[in-house]
Recover the amino acids of this structure.
């Protein structure tokens, strides 16, 4: 559904965040890049996600998403989780993990 890469990934992937975003967009994914000042990840991050798939995950978990104070809109959801760090014990964590295809 969604992927997040630290902007420090360039060292390992040998691709700039812009190149990764361009490739993701060509594959039909939405992308948004957050610099270090706007992100809960120290180096900043690039998020790429399939809007419809993420919307499905959010709708399937709508009660939890609302209870956690997160938006149901995929773009707003990504912005929220990029700027606020959620610990594993937080109500939102299982939904965030599901959005990334991980088991909470």
């Amino acid at each position: 559904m969604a992927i997040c890469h630290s902007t420090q990934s360039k060292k390992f992937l040998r691709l700039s965040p812009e190149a990764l975003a361009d490739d993701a967009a060509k594959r039909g994914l939405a992308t948004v890049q957050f610099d270090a000042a706007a992100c809960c990840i120290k180096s900043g991050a690039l998020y790429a996600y399939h809007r419809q798939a993420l919307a499905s995950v959010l709708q399937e978990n709508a009660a939890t998403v609302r209870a956690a104070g997160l938006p149901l809109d995929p773009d707003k959801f990504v912005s929220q989780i990029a700027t606020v760090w959620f610990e594993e014990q937080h109500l939102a964590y299982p939904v965030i993990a599901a959005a990334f295809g991980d088991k909470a």
Observations:
- The beta strands are 2-6, 30-34, 45-49.
- Helices lie at 10-13, 17-26, 51-60, 62-67, 74-83, 93-99.
